[in-house]
Amino acid sequence: MKSNLPIVFITAGDPLGIGPEVTVKALQDKRVRQSCVPVVFGEPASLQKAGFSTDLAALIPIESLSAKPTEVAPSKWGGEISFKALQLACKLAKEKNAPVITAPISKQSWAKAGIQFTGHTEFLRTYYGKTALMMFVSGNLRCGLVSEHFSIKDLPRIVTQTRIVQAGKDFENALRKLGIKNPHIALSALNPHGGDNGKFGIEESSVISPAIKALQKVHIHTEGPYPIDSLWSKHIQGKFDGILCMYHDQALLGLKLAAREPIIHLTAGLDILRVSPTHGTAFDIAGQNLADPASMIAAILFAATQYQSRL
């Protein structure tokens, strides 16, 4: 039976955060054990402390030559381990045609370790040489991001027509891979009230609307731009297969309020499938057996289901 199941690679994230705990709790879930053959990349002691054993999954141990810190906080040690785990998992995932599920890393830990990337997505873009789209799924709710971790003041410079068109193409392709034959996508406005005819900004008419027309010319079913509050209402009602938001909080605020199922994060447009839970390292509760594994479980099951159809 096991030989007929897809292999999934799981990176345990920052060893001082809740990554090892949610990884182990997910592996203990019967649905996960029945859906895939998991391989974990992580620091052995932190995983064992969380209850890991090789009965749950194969383990590829990741170590660091740096000293392990005595307090639970961002650290060079944690940054080195979580980054090494990701690098190796991504290398093997392409070779073995396997998905990668990533537990949370600490951006501060990566910075302390001298890692030039601010997070998973930025590394994955460089490693695979793809534009890559950050998107989220919870049941029938699906949203993508034109821009991710940027200051609000920089958005008018970052949200360009070219960037929107590429995001629209990546989003449509990702929705097709989810089984939606002709995705109907709506785009959000950038400014309050959609700019209100230029009173609050002109990006809707000068940037977003031309991008929508460009997407329509290549037969991608798009419309908008809609003010974000009305757009989320329409999506919840099922009027669109997915919505493309201009920046981070437009997507995450609405999704976290509307979702009735665990939310998972995808990086669309890569050579592999990368999925993750939608929470952080939560250093404040690490090691206390308080972390909720629901999003991690959902991420693994999603990846296993996607790859099961390829066997």
Explain the overall architecture.
The model has no long low-confidence stretch (mean pLDDT about 95). It is built from twelve helices and eleven strands. The relative contact order is 0.18. It folds into two domains: about 170 residues, Isopropylmalate Dehydrogenase, CATH 3.40.718; about 130 residues, Isopropylmalate Dehydrogenase, CATH 3.40.718.10. An eleven-stranded mixed sheet has the order 3-2-1-4-11-10-5-6-9-7-8, with helices on both faces. With about 300 residues, it is an alpha/beta fold. The two termini are about 15 Å apart.
State the end-to-end distance. Answer: 13 Å
> Strand portion, in percent?
15-25%
Which class of the largest domain in CATH terms? Alpha Beta
Q: Give the full name of the CATH homologous superfamily of the largest domain.
A: Isopropylmalate Dehydrogenase
**Number of domain units:** 2
The total count of helices amounts to: 12
Mean pLDDT: 93
Condensed summary:
The protein folds into two domains: 1-130 and 270-311, Isopropylmalate Dehydrogenase (3-Layer(aba) Sandwich), CATH 3.40.718; 133-261, Isopropylmalate Dehydrogenase (3-Layer(aba) Sandwich). The protein contains twelve helices and eleven strands. It has helices at 19-27, 30-35, 44-49, 76-96, 107-112, 120-128, 155-158, 161-177, 203-217, 228-236, 248-258, 294-308; strands spanning 7-11, 37-42, 58-61, 100-102, 133-138, 141-145, 184-188, 221-226, 242-245, 264-268, 274-277.
